[in-house]
Design goal:
The structure holds two protein chains of two kinds. Chain A is mostly helical. Chain A has helices at 3-26, 35-63, 69-74, 85-88, 94-115, 121-149, 153-166, 170-173, 178-185, 192-210, 232-246. In chain A, 69% of the residues lie in helices and 0% in strands. Classes of the chains: A mainly alpha, B alpha/beta. At the A-B interface, helix 2 and helix 6 of A face loops of B.
């Protein structure tokens, strides 16, 4: 794989995570538990999709061939998307979607912090922008973990159920393939192994305050980074890509 | 104004300084810190801008406003370039700009971002003064307010809710 190709794929992996999670969260717009929270979630969805947009513009410039960010978002199918399984899991209750945010936000915060040191100047510049926003996201979802876990019997039970459903997607966040390891060696990509301890510490400290146990001995699900997704991604893409595919080249 | 003067970079800074922020019309795009650089590259006028927030829907409007204003002034050979580094910070706002925000009813960003490092993951904004009555007895209602750049707060003394411009 050529240097440009592996950088291109690496950028897509980062952007796909943000786009798919942003889209999932946007599905919740107007359905928040109360007005301020609804606005907060819509704001976070916008940040995520906006950060992905910057990365897709960069990826399209590497790809050349007159491709744009729209081609990358609207004309790739499930197998081409490289997001982790965690972010595509469909919304159920508020505890579930906020835990999904919290787990991703924690990973993303340390990931973006490490990406600041990337030798790729554009990636580092976008990371500097994203990190400021990720900090707000993480504080927001972290506070919700404590509020739900340490709240009523009902809210704690819902958070516990969500934990049992989502924890199996954690290992995949830190999985690295050969091309990624090669980019790490060049100082371009983030070494996920190096941020795992920070992730574990932060999750443990928040969950301790929330009175939540972290599940152990769970079989870890993987595949998203290779394009092997849960069935939910296809439905998400069908909705997200419908207009663009029905009216090719449409602008708005 | 003759042609030579109107091509002066300082004149262009002045006209861009007249374009209001689409969501906070009391401050201009220059005061907000979105316009980073203006220069002539041969015959092409280059305007460099930087996004406030990655997903801020007002960025497109800002670009369009700059485009329209430049055309109105008779410029047609220009390029608007989006730049990510250095990333936008509220530290670029002058005291004068912060005062304008306050008079408009938005509590300006507190402190300098460097003073907040370390506390960021656990602490939200602290002791933000109410723009109406100046009381520091205020509380955070939501980290995310009516636009990406603001949080929603409430004054415990005069009971007004108000926007706080996030310090990032």
């Amino acid at each position: 794989m050529s240097q440009n190709n592996s950088l291109f794929n690496y950028i897509l992996k980062i952007a796909d995570n943000q786009l798919i999670l942003g889209h999932r969260l946007s599905e919740q717009s107007s359905k928040g538990p109360f007005l301020e929270e609804d606005i907060a979630c819509s704001n976070i969805a916008l940040d995520l999709i906006g950060a992905a947009n910057s990365l897709y513009i960069y990826a399209a410039s590497i790809q050349g061939e007159n491709k744009t960010e729209d081609d990358l978002v609207f004309l790739r199918s499930e197998r081409d998307y490289k997001n982790v399984l965690l972010v595509e899991q469909p919304n159920t209750d508020f505890a579930f979607l906020m835990l999904r945010q919290f787990l991703f936000d924690t990973y993303d915060f340390y990931f973006q912090q490490a990406l600041l040191n990337s030798k790729d100047e554009t990636l580092a510049a976008i990371a500097a922008k994203t990190l400021k926003e990720s900090t707000y996201h993480l504080r927001h979802s972290g506070n919700w973990m404590i509020r739900l876990g340490d709240g009523t019997t009902e809210s704690a039970m819902r958070l516990k159920n969500a934990m049992n459903q989502l924890w199996c997607f954690i290992d995949e966040l830190f999985e690295q393939d050969e091309t990624e390891i090669a980019l790490v060696a060049q100082g371009i990509a983030v070494d996920s192994n190096a941020i795992k301890a920070q992730f574990d510490n932060h999750v443990a400290s928040i969950m301790q305050n929330a009175g939540m146990d972290i599940p152990t001995n769970i079989f870890m699900q993987k595949g998203g980074k290779q394009g092997v997704h849960t069935e939910h991604l296809g439905f998400l893409l069908a909705e997200m890509q419908y207009v663009h595919r029905s009216f090719p080249g449409v602008k708005w | 104004m003759n042609q030579i003067n109107s091509n002066e970079v300082s004149f262009i800074w002045d006209i861009l300084n007249e374009i209001p922020d689409p969501e906070i019309p009391v401050i201009s795009l220059v005061e907000l810190g979105v316009v980073r650089n203006i220069l002539w590259d041969n015959e092409v006028l280059q305007i460099t801008i930087t996004p406030t927030y990655s997903g801020c829907p007002a960025m497109r409007v800002m670009e369009m406003d700059i485009d329209q204003r430049l055309r109105k002034e008779g410029f047609d050979n220009f390029k608007i370039i989006m730049q990510y580094h250095p990333s936008w910070t509220t530290d670029w706002m002058t005291q004068e700009t912060k005062l304008k925000l306050k008079e408009y009813g938005i509590a300006p960003p507190q402190l300098h971002t460097k003073q907040r490092v370390g506390a960021l993951l656990t602490e939200g904004p602290m002791n933000v003064a109410c723009p109406q009555c100046n009381s520091e007895n205020t509380k955070l209602i939501s980290e995310f307010g009516s636009t990406a750049c603001k949080s929603l707060m409430k004054c415990n003394d005069c009971l007004e809710t108000f926007d706080y411009f996030k310090c990032i």
